[in-house]
């Protein structure tokens, strides 16, 4: 965890591919650096999808205690299984009001960017394998190379590195 006021946000968009089928993506983007610290892609939208993404985030960060996880009002985020996982990881849940995307605007914007940048002029990803490969490549690029105005035009990884270096310099 990089910041004591650590906030994560969750959302799970539909990823269309040929034949009218979908994969679903659950992400855990960190609000501090905009880094996606956890994600999971599956052919279902059950609680395991979002729980897997949160577990990956915990593994990536080493710990999530004191984090606030904000999500939309999806049933997966309100389930007892997900609530239990959050309790186990020390995560406080926050859920937006139903029927409005404004409560989770950062995640909505993130997923709109993903679709806009990975489906330019297309209606679907073609097949499940291409969808997974394309989304994984985009997420990797997003964390390592995509610049964000909120980060002073640095990638999430660069922004975190500079923050960490500045903290070490101040401590010395």
TrEMBL record:
What residue spans carry the region label Disordered?
149-172
Pfam families in alphabetical order: rve, rve_2
Stretches assigned to the Integrase catalytic domain: 1-163
Question: Could you tell me the Gene Ontology terms of the biological process aspect for this record?
Answer: DNA integration
Name the Gene Ontology molecular function terms of this record. Answer: nucleic acid binding
UniProt cross-references to PANTHER family, sorted A to Z: TRANSPOSASE INSF FOR INSERTION SEQUENCE IS3B-RELATED, TRANSPOSASE INSO FOR INSERTION SEQUENCE ELEMENT IS911B-RELATED
Q: What is this protein called?
A: DDE-type integrase/transposase/recombinase
Q: Which organism is it from?
A: Streptomyces sp. SID12501
């Amino acid at each position: 965890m990089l910041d004591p006021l650590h906030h994560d946000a969750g959302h799970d968009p539909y990823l269309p591919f040929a034949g009218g089928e979908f994969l679903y993506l659950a992400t855990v983007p960190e609000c501090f650096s905009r880094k996606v610290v956890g994600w999971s892609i599956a052919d279902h939208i059950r609680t395991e999808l979002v729980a897997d993404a949160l577990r990956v985030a915990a593994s990536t960060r080493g710990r999530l205690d004191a984090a606030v996880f904000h999500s939309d009002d999806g049933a997966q985020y309100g389930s007892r299984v997900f609530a239990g996982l959050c309790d186990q990881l020390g995560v406080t849940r926050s859920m937006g009001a139903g029927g409005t995307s404004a409560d989770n605007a950062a995640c909505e914007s993130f997923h709109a960017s993903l679709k806009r940048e990975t489906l330019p002029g297309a209606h679907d990803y073609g097949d499940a394998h291409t969808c997974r490969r394309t989304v994984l490549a985009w997420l990797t690029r997003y964390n390592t190379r995509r610049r964000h105005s909120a980060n002073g035009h640095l990638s999430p990884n660069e922004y975190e590195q500079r923050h960490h270096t500045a903290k070490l310099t101040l401590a010395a």
